[in-house]
Amino acid sequence: MAVVVATPTMASTKANPGAVPSRRLGKEELTKTHKAHLKKQDNSPHAPRAVKQPVLSDAYPASTKSIRELEIIPLSELRAETHHRGKGIIVKAISAPFVGAGAVSIVEDEFGNADKLAIYNQADSSILSGVPEGCVVAVKEPYYKNNGAEDDFMICVDHPSDVILLRFTDPIIPESLRLGPLLKTAEDWRNAADRAFIEKDFPTSVFCYSEALEASEDAAFKAPIHTKRAGVNLILGRYDAAKADALASRTGGPQDWKAYYNAGRAAYGLCSYTESHTLLTTALDLNPTNANIQKEHARCQARLREEETGAYDFPAMHASLGPHAVHLDRGSFLRNTRVAESAHHGRGLFAARDLRAGDVVFVEKATLMPNQYEPARASAALYALMVRQLCDNPSLAGHVLGLYDGGYERSGEEGAVVDGVAVVDVFLVEAIRTKNCFSAPRSTLEDTRPSVRDGRQAKGLWVHASRMNHNCVANTMRSFVGDMLISRATRDIKEGEELFQQYVPVKTMVDVRNKQFKDGWGFECACVLCTAENRSPEAMLAKRKELLAAVEKLCSKKMPGRELIPDAKIRSVDRLAKQLEEAHEKDVYEGLPRLTLIYPCNWLVAAHRGRKNHGKVVKYALKVLRNFGFKVPDESEVWDPREIYTKSGNATLMTVHVVATLRTLAEAYEALGHKEMAERCAEAAEFGYVLVTGSKNDLTTLDK
Ligand SMILES: C[S@@+](CC[C@H](N)C(=O)[O-])C[C@H]1O[C@@H](n2cnc3c(N)ncnc32)[C@H](O)[C@@H]1O
């Protein structure tokens, strides 16, 4: 589904909040305008579907009551800009839906009052994503919103669980709205469902199969309908329902292999591979020669092996990526880690065994990640997917709703099933999204190519990785292959140590980066680097800012290429770099990164490289490594660059620039005739590239 972001409509100033409007549009006017809108509707199946992303400051809770507990009121009693707590409405759609950011229908109550009903955040898999004319719905605790003009109002439903499609025979439907069942017999309903299936109208097919099941008491009639509904639910990705249907279709006979097979596929869709394996094994016992079961069974075993061993064929994973292939069929390897209370905040992730620098910490398949890499659409697409999955697969709620929500006030009923649907609070979903999602390039490896740094990133949710707290000098590093997140240790880690990641590449200045953390995640970082830098007086910070700005101005914020940089300019930058170095107090920065010095030193490396001054390249490249927090010797000492990951202490900052610097060092040592040093640096660069990209890859990618 293509997604565009809709701007939330603003509350009007014209309505008298809390009052029953003195004038509102009548049925005829509403219907006429609606018909005009319907004519303009883009009905092409690939028309981009807008998403109304919630604004957290407008948050209100989802209804947790059953419609049967609420006082049913007529439309004429709705009050402007009011959440009608304790109340509900029951209305019939008297128009086709206009589908935009939501689905708007003209509805009528039992007294003949008409109004507009806008339903947002329904998944395409739900019949409520466009209520068919004639259907009767209940809206729980509705909000009545003014649309700008004095007499223009709309019932606005943000939480998907606040609206319920009522079965035609539901006794709660008032007499005058009741048509009686449109189709009389269970067979009629089944036939209608079959027809809807053939027309690929899967939500309607599920609805009609459900009516057929309700209309029959005959187990022999019902079993194949459960099988059919399981099949449709599998297509819709409603795996919880598909599994329940598949298991309900069992008759106790040898044909039950199909029930276990479908249930196994549904469990696979939920990434519950152990359960899927058990179900598929039963299917295979009942039908050992069936090739489809054998194939699914083998696939499931492969996932379990990945979960168990963490052995992945990374080159094959990279090779399988394509514009429409970003969701990789792989299991998650999480056993090196465990979730526990953190001294920093809430829960965190901890090492479950000793890890060496470079080891895989964990590999996690995205819980949810849309294939949407357009920056302007990525957030809305993830939000929409989260809502859809929580509605369609309530068993996911346990994982997703357990995540940190930034202090959102919960009712405690989110995820509970009321009136047959899971309570989904869209503001809570958005709060969780903002605090826990990651940006992911389609491939971090590809992203290290200078030629393809285009900023295209999807947003996704990896619930295990989300448990990790932030640290500017983190001991792990993440990378992506499609929707797989690979976390590797940047240094040796002891069992029981808390694992940290950088939430975003850290900004150079301590105050700037902490403002970013505060605004985005509501915390101030207390890592060794931030703690130390916060001890440095403000005047020194100001001095460092001033000097860095002077270097950036002198160099126009660019890096030298292969061109010859004039001596005078190099001397000027060198002078400023020295002053900047002096502006880093020894007692503050001992053993810590000096982020302000990285740009000037990198610039000097490039400038001297252009002049083929290899000795100077070595000198400044060592400084770059030092400024990333790595332990490097004085120029003259013999050292082993391969040990920088294991012997540099606990405050190193790993990035692709470290890899690039090690390569440049290797090249300079080679030119100076220091073969062994060149080899060691090249090896250290290769090792670093594994941390950065997640797997062993050819370093020449960095040149392309
Ligand atoms: C994705 S959650 C991390 C897991 C979280 N600790 C939990 O209990 O689920 C992100 C939130 O953790 C907190 N957090 C992360 N790193 C932190 C740190 N270094 N210091 C304090 N709070 C931190 C912030 O409140 C942030 O919004």
UniProtKB/TrEMBL annotation:
Top-level division of the source organism's lineage: Eukaryota
InterPro entries assigned: Gramillin-biosynth_MTr, SET_dom, SET_dom_sf, TPR-like_helical_dom_sf
Domain called SET: residue spans: 335-504
Region called Disordered, residue ranges: 1-25, 32-51
SUPFAM superfamilies: SET domain, TPR-like
Membrane-spanning parts: none
Protein name in the entry: SET domain-containing protein
Lineage summary: Eukaryota, Fungi, Dikarya, Ascomycota, Pezizomycotina
